[in-house]
């Protein structure tokens, strides 16, 4: 049996990944603030166990208890593979430095960086004695590699995720029961995050016209397409600590 833990999976890319994983040999736990009843009904029709775990990832004190509950449900003796996909993310606040509220800054760092760090740390602790395959996937962004006005937090947290992933990969190569950790950059997608970006003020996000053009010209990738690329990637031999870009696979 293969177990998957996916954050932010009630919509967008996370929802698409869940659908791509529908298989009678997979058990999926999705961690989000809200559940998706239509997704659960679809999973039942595909004979795939899908379970919802409510959690606001910005409330980082909850994360240890959430992972503890999930691992109590995972039968390590029956498991062949356990995968954690840190998909949840937020682009807000789209503000120049000096214009954002402290609460919004903290929430962004919690969801984009601290949550993946804490969840990965717990995942590695819980799987140290597990002899099957273990994988951590951190969803990243090209914004980690270049500064964009208004995205100081989004870009910086994704850059932090990349370095964290690389470091896990380096450390785990020294272990017998190693965890494979990768980051995956999906490029620009037609999701709610893009809708949020297009409503930003030009005074704080000078690139807004470019992102509106992506939408108008149909240049945004469908989450379903990106999800298939990622799931196909996970079926191949992985390089520990590598930052994968979807452009390499299409």
UniProtKB/TrEMBL annotation:
SUPFAM superfamilies: NAD(P)-binding Rossmann-fold domains (SSF51735)
Subcellular location(s) of the protein: Cytoplasm
Superkingdom assignment: Bacteria
Record key words, sorted: Cytoplasm, NADP, Oxidoreductase
Alphabetized GO MF terms: oxidoreductase activity
Keyword NADP set for record: yes
EC number(s) on file: 1.1.1.320
Family: Belongs to the short-chain dehydrogenases/reductases (SDR) family.
Protein name: (S)-benzoin forming benzil reductase
């Amino acid at each position: 049996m293969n177990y998957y833990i996916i954050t932010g999976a009630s919509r967008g890319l996370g929802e698409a990944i869940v659908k791509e994983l529908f298989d009678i040999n997979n058990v999926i736990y999705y961690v989000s603030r809200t559940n998706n009843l239509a997704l659960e009904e679809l999973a039942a029709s595909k004979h795939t166990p899908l379970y919802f775990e409510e959690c606001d990832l910005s409330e980082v004190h909850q994360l240890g208890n959430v992972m503890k509950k999930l691992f109590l449900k995972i039968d390590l003796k029956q498991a062949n593979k356990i995968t954690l996909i840190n998909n949840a993310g937020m682009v807000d606040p789209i503000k120049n430095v000096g214009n954002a509220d402290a609460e919004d800054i903290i929430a962004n760092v919690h969801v984009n960086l601290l949550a993946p760090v804490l969840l990965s740390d717990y995942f590695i602790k819980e799987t140290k004695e597990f002899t099957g395959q273990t994988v951590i996937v951190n969803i990243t962004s090209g914004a980690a590699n270049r500064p964009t006005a208004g995205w100081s937090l989004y870009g910086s947290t994704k850059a932090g995720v990349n370095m964290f992933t690389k470091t896990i990969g380096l450390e785990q190569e020294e272990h017998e029961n190693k965890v494979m950790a990768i980051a995956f950059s999906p490029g620009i997608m037609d999701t709610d995050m893009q809708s949020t970006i297009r409503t930003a003020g030009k005074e704080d996000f000078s690139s807004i016209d470019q992102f509106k053009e992506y939408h108008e010209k149909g240049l945004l990738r469908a989450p379903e397409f990106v999800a298939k690329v990622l799931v196909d990637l996970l079926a191949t031999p992985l390089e520990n600590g590598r930052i994968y870009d979807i452009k390499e696979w299409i």
